[in-house]
Each structure stands twice: as C-alpha cells, then as structure tokens.
Amino acid sequence: MTDDVIEHLRNSGARLRAKALFRDPGDSLSVRIPGREGFLFMTPDRPDPTAFPFATTGVEASDLHARIYRSRDDAGGVLIGQTQWSWALASIGARVPTLFDEQARHIGPAGKPIAAGRHSRLLRALSDGRNVAIYGERRICIGTTPSRVVFNAELFEKCAKAFVITHAGEDRIRKLPLWVRYIARARLRRDQKRAALSYAAGRIPERMDAYF
Amino acid sequence: MKFEATRELVVRTCIELADGGYLAATGGNVALRLDQDHFAVTPSATDYYAMSAADVCVMRLSNVEKVEGARQASVEAGLHAGVLLARPDCGASIHTHQPIASAYTLLSRPLEVRDRARQALLGRSIPCVGYAPSGTGLLAGRVARAVKPDTHAYLMRNHGAVCVGKDVTEAMTRIAALESECASFFLSRTAARPGNVDASVRAIVIQTLRPMVDDAATRFDDVVEAESEHAP
C-alpha cells in the first residue's frame, strides 16, 4: 500500500510542477497513507517522500499538514504553496467569490484570506468542508484523493486568475447563482463523507471526480 | 475499435489543450464529427493525461446515444451534438475552460472583437449565453440557439467557451484567438483603471496578458493571410 501511495505522491508532485503549481522552495505536498495515522510529505527541492504521523507537532511545514489531517478525516491530499495569483488574492484581501460550477462542486467557498500564523482560525475555516483557503500569501488546497488535490489546485488557479483579472479591470462580475452553490455544496459534502468512510476502512476513495 | 484514428486525435487534442492551459482539471471536452450520423466525444470526469482512445465515446448525433466507448460520455455531449447539427460545415466542437475567456464570461455580455485578424477567425461579436448548469439540456439549448454560420466561438456565463472549426486545427486556432481577444480586452481595462488594485497586482495582470496580445499580433495575421491565399 505504501508503495502505491509513494507513486501517487510522486505523480501528483510531477504534474503540479509541470503546471508551475509546485515549485516555490516553501511549497509542500502530502498524501494520506490509508490505514495508518500518517501521511507522506514532499517539497519541490526534496522530492523523496518522508512519512510523518498525524501527531506531528512543531514549526516545520509538515506540522500544518498534520493539523489539517487531524481536523479533516476526508482529506486525502494537501498542497500548501504560493503562486503569483495566491499572492495577488492575499494582497487584494477580499473574499474570493464562487464563480464557476466546478469551483462550487469541488472546492467550495474560499472565504477571506487568513493572516499567516493564525492556525486555529485557518482550521476553523477549513472545518466547514471548504477545500481551499488563502493563508498568508499561500493557498492551501485539500482533495479527497491524491489526484483530486491536483485537480483542485488547477481549478483554483483558474478561479484566482479570473477573479484577479476582473477585479483589476474594475469589472462588475456575476457570481454563480445561490441555488447552484447550495446543490454543489451538498454534493461536495456527500463526497467528503464517503471519502472519510473509505479512509476509516483503510482505502483510498474511488469516483471522486464526477460532476453529478 | 471503431473510428480509432479520430478517437486517438481526441486524446491528443485534449493533452494539447491541457498542456496549453485551456482545460482545468477534468473540465472541458472535445467533440469531433465522425460521419454524417456520429461524433466522438471525451468521457465524463476523466483525467486527460490518463485517457485512452478506447475511453473516447462514439455517439449518435440524432439522439446523443452512446454507440461505443469504455466510459460514460461527457455531460456536455448534448451541447456538442446541438452545435454540430447547427453547423454542418464544422467537424470540431471544443468546449474549454480557458482562463481569460472564462473570466470574460463573468461579465455576462457579448465580446465585440476589435482586432481585424481575430474578427476573421471568430466573427464580429461573440455571444455570451445566460447561465445554465453544466451538463443540462438548458445549457445545450441556449448554446444551440446562439449558433450562427458566421460566428465561430460562444461564451457561456460563469462557465467557459465553445469554439468550432472545420477541423481540430481550425478550432484550436480559434480557441487561441478567443483567449487573446479577451486578454486584449482586460489589458486595456487594467491599463485604463489603475486605481483598483495596488501596483504589484496590476503588474502581474499586465505581465500575464501582454504577451498573449503581443504574440497574437503576428500569429493570427499569418493564419488569416494563409487562409485567404488558399481560398477558392
């Protein structure tokens, strides 16, 4: 099982690197090890995965990953890092609106940026099931599977870019209708419950990419 | 496997689109006409980098029924069928989640194409259809009603774009032309309204958009020139 998880992590890291979403020295990526109270962790400059228990504490990057896994039993992967768009969102400081169908379906509301170091505020925000937060100048992406965290990172990059570009042009934008966000959120919650049950049974959840 | 070569072309097109940043995650899809009655379409919610030709679905145009394919067809198969039926001159219908055109859909208004070369590729005015959820008959109907013979791109509010062409190459050129026209729109807006964001954010936006506009200046002129040379 661990060999499979190492492979998942390496593949996810390679794809994110190719898309310029995982290359900053401060970036970090991890995936849950099903059936174990721990996760595998890597950074762009140290691509050999290292295993950490969920009980990890301290000031290293792995500590924040551990805190997220402890608070989110559906999390199968976590990406923490900075892109120019996450930096721009932090600079703008506004709540990132839900703009696209697939953003509502797989990411949920991103909320307002949270100041770096406010761990408990971040974890409180993530506890409502949202899969993205702006924390300091970095974005935190959560996915129910190793591939879903990659997809969510790609999706959020597009959403962040669209929001910043329209914001810079002072254009009035139309948000996704409330009823669509409501239905999408219920479906996201359903997936997260299913993922948590799968991980509790020691398995990586399947079919986490459907729209409906 | 039926229509193997075209189904492989769907796979290669998706990878090219994903590498170019025109698809995000599993969003977006490609449909290619196979014959008078059938088209090939990407499977639903599939990682484009892991997709094989056998996963690509063969669909009947008249009723959007799957004829062959290892996976469930894209939820937008009905949208593509409507477009291909309305545009018998087109062999390719590609739905993208390209970031700049997707940003433009948030404004919920038509895109007036200013650049002469891009106008020749896309049409004078690109309609933006009203919001409807992904994969619904309502969205497919709205797009089908917007289709015109002299317009080759369509925007969908809070969603993305559809570009058509006689073949994949032409549709891909139009996807790039649409992205650069939208980049040109936002570049002029950002330059004209410096007060809304701080200078660093503004610089990021301008540095992202300007190369797309500058590259396009020669690229699409060349395409239009080449096409007019080959015109009967």
Q: How does this structure look, described?
A:
The complex is a heterodimer of chains A (212) and B (232). Chain A starts with a helix and ends in a 12-residue tail after the last helix. In chain A, strands 3-2-1-4-6-5 form a six-stranded antiparallel beta sheet, with helices on both faces. Chain A has one domain (2-200): Class II aldolase/adducin N-terminal domain (L-fuculose-1-phosphate Aldolase, 3-Layer(aba) Sandwich), CATH 3.40.225. Chain A has seven helices and six strands, in the order H-E-E-E-H-E-H-H-H-E-E-H-H. Chain A is 46% helix and 17% strand. Chain A has helices at 2-18, 61-71, 84-92, 101-106, 119-126, 146-168, 178-200; strands spanning 28-33, 38-43, 46-53, 77-81, 132-135, 138-143. Chain B is α+β, with helices and mostly antiparallel strands and 232 residues long. Chain B has helices at 4-19, 77-86, 99-105, 116-122, 137-146, 168-192, 199-230; strands spanning 29-33, 38-41, 57-60, 66-68, 92-96, 111-112, 125-126, 128-129, 153-156, 160-165. In chain B, a hairpin with a 5-residue loop joins strand 3 (57-60) and strand 4 (66-68). In chain B, helix 6 (168-192) packs antiparallel against helix 7 (199-230). The longest helix of chain B has 32 residues, at 199-230. Chain B is globular, with a radius of gyration of 18 Å. The model of chain B has no long low-confidence stretch (mean pLDDT 93).
Q: What's the CATH architecture of chain A?
A: 3-Layer(aba) Sandwich
Shape of chain A: globular
Mean pLDDT of chain B: 93
Sheet bearing the most strands of chain B, described? 8 strands, mixed
> CATH H-level name of chain B... which superfamily?
Class II aldolase/adducin N-terminal domain
Task: Report the structural category of chain A.
Answer: alpha+beta
At the fold tier of CATH, the topology name of chain A is L-fuculose-1-phosphate Aldolase
How many domains of chain B, as an integer?
1
Secondary structure tally, helices of chain A: 7
Percent in helix of chain B: 40-55%
Using the 3D structure, state the CATH architecture of chain B.
3-Layer(aba) Sandwich
Secondary-structure element series of chain A: HEEEHEHHHEEHH
Over all CA atoms, what is the radius of gyration of chain A? 16 Å
Q: N-to-C terminal Cα separation of chain A, in Å?
A: 30 Å
**What is the CA–CA distance across the termini of chain B?**
37 Å
**Mean of residue pLDDT values of chain A:** 92
